[in-house]
Amino acid sequence: MPSPQIRIAIVGAGPAGLTLGVLLHKHGIPFTIFELRQQPTEEVVNSPRKKGFESLLGDCTEADRVCNMHGDLVYADEGELTNRPEIARPKLIKLLLSNLPASSVRWGHKLRSVNTSALLGPETTELDFGEHGKDTFDLVVGADGAWSRVRAFLTAEKPHYVGMHTITLDIRQIASKHPVLAQWIGPGSLQCLGNRHGICSQRSMEGSARIYMFLSVADKDFATTSGLGSQTAAQAKNRLLSDDSLFGLWGSNIKELVAAACEDESIHNPGQTIDIKPLYTLPARYTWEHHSCATLIGDAAHLMNPPAGQGVNLAMKDSLLLAQAIVKARTIIDQNPTLFRATLDALVTDFERNMAVAAKEVADMTMMINEIQFGSDDAATAMANVFKSCGESAR
């Protein structure tokens, strides 16, 4: 009796979904990835395979700096205490796509609904992609982010607002355009904290720096009620830098960084409204009732507040654990095809249990860091003490 193939659908082509796909492809296990976005350009998809992970590093280091709201440096570590690799997200996506067959990803597919019924066959899940039709699978993996439709199939739990908005801007070629600012923010990450807000920078691709502004505001509709959501970066600049409830009281070097980011966005994206959005999270200890034909990874499974910076790392770990479970299931099924559903179900159950333990640990750490970063007016000192404590422990 030939072994049945495990029909696998991965919903979402972010780091979690693509990593899972690469790992399954490596073991010869077929799958299909469905992604809402349209197909990227050929340049993005067809990255030369000879360029491995190591060749894509170097845009950012592990250096950490912390400043108070006046721009005074209170902590600086140039990365001596850790050698973890850093890779820009676009390069990571490009690398993963270059290691997948083009036919394995279906772009422009918006998932309308997830369904099961006796009419579909025993323990089979149907995905409805509207104009692209319907298809059935033995296992559906929701890697579809914060507002996952696969999660909605498994549980009624929804993300809740964390009391914070974020604004994201970029400064391209910062070293050549703004050498003094580039030297100040350093080669890695900078956190300017105070007044329960934050301005953070992260060095990125092609000499750029990504600037994040974190605003502690109770109103989840702040982007609309404040008017910032309908303004361009040039229009928002004066409001951000003059309003004392925002960054009006902050130091001159921090204001210069924000102004440079707003001006650069205005040059490269003229007329485009500023990228401001509310932040949401899932409860750290929530779980969903196990379903034999569907599971979750990444933000779909455990959405967390981003400033602690562990989301992608945890998502890719999810993918590794689930891939190991599927590979093990395939081996057992090859030996005894009659155990197909029982084996797959048991191993996915174990994966979910292990993922929940790992996610809870990271979620607890994230909540602690977020409280330190934004829980007081003098958060910079508190955050500096955390870094110093970690450095002493490493030594």
Automatic annotation (TrEMBL):
Domain spans labelled FAD-binding: 7-42, 296-327
Source species, domain of life: Eukaryota
Keywords: FAD, Flavoprotein, Monooxygenase, Oxidoreductase
InterPro entries: FAD-bd (IPR002938), FAD/NAD-bd_sf (IPR036188)
GO-annotated molecular function: FAD binding; monooxygenase activity
PANTHER family cross-referenced by the UniProt entry: FAD DEPENDENT OXIDOREDUCTASE DOMAIN-CONTAINING PROTEIN, MONOOXYGENASE ASQM-RELATED
Protein name: Salicylate hydroxylase
